[in-house]
Design brief:
It contains 9 helices and no strands. Helices cover 63% and strands 0% of the residues. Helix 4 runs antiparallel to helix 5 and helix 5 crosses helix 9. It starts with 8 loop residues before the first helix and ends in an 11-residue tail after the last helix. It has one domain. By secondary structure, it is mainly alpha-helical.
Length: 175
């Protein structure tokens, strides 16, 4: 899977858009939080990263309830369980912030996600991931506590990104 280098223009673009939206629109001056959200955008640039979790049969997990079920089956103390919950938090934040219209559509149709609040599951997942002692635990706790605000911030990032394409060129945040 392609991952841009730290100097790649797309990383710098996402970092600049995220920093601007979070600072000017929300008044958030938390560099580690802003960096995490910016890196989330970079990581989720490719659809394979958005849907990177797989079940025991190797099938891609596309619904939040499936992701939660798989995470619950992992050993409670394992790093893999933390990574599943971190990903569920990232997944729900990404969709809630950047594409709320898609979340509404998924939750009004035949998807299993109709039974899930992305916000509630995102907050819960980040909280669970934050209970594992590592360097990311404090940032994951702040993402849990401020999920709604971060989702709003991502929505502002999308607006600013879309404004860059106002010249008629189509741009998408996911490939």
């Amino acid at each position: 899977m392609w991952a841009p280098s730290p100097e790649h223009p797309v990383r710098r673009l996402f970092a600049g858009l995220t920093e601007h939206a979070f600072l000017t629109r929300l008044g958030i001056t938390d560099p580690p939080l802003v960096d995490y959200v910016s890196e989330l955008l970079t990581r989720f640039l490719h659809v394979d990263a958005v849907y990177r979790l797989h079940d025991e049969h190797g099938d891609r997990l596309a619904d939040v309830p499936e992701m939660i079920r798989e995470a619950e089956q992992l050993p409670a103390e394992g790093r893999t369980r933390r990574e599943y919950y971190r990903h569920i938090g990232d997944f729900t934040l990404f969709w809630t912030g950047l594409y709320p219209e898609t979340v509404r559509r998924m939750q009004s149709g035949w998807s299993r996600d109709v039974f899930v609040s992305y916000t509630a599951q995102g907050k819960r997942s980040y909280y669970i991931a934050s209970t594992f002692e590592d360097n990311e635990a404090p940032i994951l706790r702040r993402l849990s506590d401020g999920f709604e605000l971060c989702a709003y911030g991502l929505n502002q990032v999308r607006r600013e990104f879309d404004a860059l394409g106002a010249d008629g060129g189509e741009r998408r945040l996911i490939a």
